[in-house]
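Reader question, answered in our methods column.
A reader sent in the components of a multi-part assembly and asked whether the whole thing could be modeled at once rather than chain by chain. We filled in our standard form and ran it. Here is what they sent:
COMPLEX SIZE: two components
ENTRIES:
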Amino acid sequence: MKYIDEFQDPALARRLLDEIHATVTRPWALMEVCGGQTHSIIRHGIDQLLPEQVELIHGPGCPVCVTPLEVIDKALEIASRPEVIFCSFGDMLRVPGTGRDLFQVRGEGGDVRVVYSPLDALRIAQQNPDRQVVFFGIGFETTAPPNAMTVHQARKLGIRNFSLLVSHVRVPPAIEAIMRSPSCRVQGFLAAGHVCTVMGMDEYPELAERHRVPIVVTGFEPLDILEGVRRTVAQLERGEHTVDNAYPRAVRAEGNPAARAMLEDVFEVTDRAWRGIGVIPDSGWRLSAKYREYDAESRFAVDGIRTCEPAECRSGEVLQGLLKPHECEVFGTRCTPRTPLGATMVSSEGACAAYYLYRRLDITPAAREASPVA
Amino acid sequence: MPDSTSDTLDLTGWTCPAPLRDQPRIVMGHGGGGTLSAELVQHVFAPAFGGEVLAQMGDAAALSLGGVRLAFSTDSFVVRPLFFPGGSIGDLAVNGTVNDLAMSGARAAYLSCGFILEEGVEMETVSRVAEALGAAARTAGVEVATGDTKVVEAGHGDGIYLNTAGIGLVPAGVDLRPQRVVPGDVVIVSGAIGVHGVAIMSVREGLEFGVEIVSDCAALGGLVETMLAVTPDLHVLRDPTRGGLAASLGEIAAASGTGVVVTERDVPVPPEVANACAVLGLDPFYVANEGKLVAFVPREHADAVLDAMRAHPLGQEARIIGEAVREHPGMVVARTGLGGTRVVDMPLGEQLPRIC
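And here is the structure of the entire assembly that came back:
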C-alpha cells in the first residue's frame, strides 16, 4: 500500500501532463469506462488539468449506477421479508428503488446487513440455519468471481439457506454497444484495470480493430490515469488503434485463469438490462443451470417485478457519454445526492454525484448556458 | 429496457433542502452527524422545544446564569464494541462531552452520567466501563457529580449505552462562534485525522489493515486552555467527531457565510488511515476523530497559536491546513495534490464502503 503515495506524486503528474499537452494537436474524446476511475479523476481534479482538447467522457462502469431500478425493487421486496437476512455491500443501501431504499427497509424492521465480502454472507447463513440469507451480487468482472466462489462454496458445503440476487454485467459488450450507438463520440477507451486483472486483455483486440479505437488498460491512481490518457492520446495522434496495457503491475494478458474458470463454472452469459441504457445482448451473467437453485429471484418469486425509471432522469445519456452531468436540467436542483432521481447521483462513483460533490464550484450558470445540451 | 408506467414516485416538492417527507422512519443516517442529522434537529426537535439557547446550535450551549457564563452540553454513546484499541465507551463518554464544552472555550467542571444497561450484561463489563469512565474523568480534571441507571430487557440494547452531560465556566473575553470567522482566518488542525473511525471500523467489522490502529480518544480541555493563553481571540473551535473534518468545516462555512479552502497535502492523514480508507473506498475527510480539534484563528495569531499547540502533547502534529476566503461563501473547497480543486461537501448520513 506504500504504492498509493508514489502513484499520486505531483512532480511525476506534472511531467505526464506536460507530455500530454505537448502531444495533443486536436480535440479528442476519451471514455474512462470504470466508475472508480471517474471518481479518481474528479476527486483529484485531473480533468481540470488536461488540455482543453482532451475531453473525458464518463462511461457506464459504476456497478451501482447500472443496476436496473427493477433489480433494486426486487432487492427491496426480498429484504422486506421476515425470514430473510439481506446482505449487501454498503453503497447499494442508499440506491433508491421505487419510493424507498434498503436503509428504509432496515428502518421498517427488515434485517439488512452491510458486509465486506460475499463470504461474510455465507458465514451468516451458516450461523442462522433457520433464516434465508440473500447476498446482492452486483457488479462487473471484478466482483463476479468472489460471488461465484461463494455460490460454489455454498453448494460444496450443502448450505441451502443461501442465495444470490444476481445482476452482474460485463464490460466488453458495453463498449461494443457504445461504439455501435449512432450518437457515439468516443474515440479512445481507458479500459478498467481491475476488470482486466480478472479477465485479461484478449476480449479487446477485436473491439479495437472493428471500431478502430485505441483501448488502453488503465489503473486508478492519478498517475495511472494520466499514463492511460497519455498513451491513448499518443495513439490517436499517430492514427493507431491498438490494445495497450498501461497497468502492468496488476494486469497480465491472460488475466486470472482460476477466477475465469470459476466464472465459467458458476455463471453463464445472458442478455442484461443496464440502468438508463437498456438491454445489451450478452452483457451479463446469470447463475448456470448447475447452480440455478441458488438464484434468489426464483427462490422468492420476484421475477415478475417490472419498473420504469423516473422520466426526468437522463442518467442513461450520462452513462453513454452523451450528456455531461451538469447539462441535465434537474442536476443539483431536483436531483442531488440527497434526493437522487437516478443511480448516477447515488453512488459516489456515479458521474453525477462526482460532479455534484467535487465540481459544483466550476459549474456556474454561465457554464451551463455555454454547454451544448445533447 | 423493461418498462411500465410508474406513478408511485411523488416528485413534487423534491427540492433541496427537502423536509423529512421522504424519510417516514428513522434511518441510521439520522445519527450520522451529517445532513440527515441536521434536518432531524431542524424539522422535529427545534420546533418542538423552541428556545433561544437551542437556536445557537453549537456543540455546547452558551448560557448566562446569575451573571456567570456557562457552557452546557450532553452527548450519548452507543458505540460497538464497548472496548477498542485506545479506549472504551467509558473514555468516549467523558471525552466527548468534555470536548464539546472545550470547543466553546470552557473547562469542564462537572459531568452527569446515565447508564442504560441491557439485562444480562456481565457485571465485570459494567465495572470495567465504570472504571474507565472514572479514570478518564480524573485525567480530564472533571468530576462526575450525578448519575442514573436504567436496565432494559435483553435484546433491547447493545450491552451498555451511556449519556453524559457537562457544565463548565467560559473564561471572560472568550467568544467562540462560527459567526466570528472572517476571510483571512487560518484553519489549523491539531493532528492526524481519521484515526478513531478507522480504529473502530477495524475491530467492529473484523477488518485487518496489517497494523493495529489505536483510537486518538482524548480530552482536549488542556490543549484549548493552552491556545487561549496565547490569545482569547480565537474565532471558532470544533471537534470533528461524526462526519469528520468535512462536517466540521462544512458547518463552520455554512454558519459563517465564508468560503473555506484547504490544501489536501497539508492535512495530516496517517498512512494506515489512508490505506484503510483506500481499501474501503472511504474519504478520510469524513472519518470520525475523538481527540482532535479544528480551529479558525486570526491570521496575526496563527503562528503563536500553532507553536503553543505543538508544545502540548495533544497538539504536537498541529498543522495549518487552509484558510477562510471571500470566494464561494458557505462552501468548502480542497486543493488537490495535483493542483486541481474539489468541493468538500457535508456528509449526508453514514459513509458507505464502496463495492469496488
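What stands out: Chain B touches chain A through 53 residues (CB under 8 Å). Chain B has eight helices and 14 strands.
Send us your own complexes using the same form.
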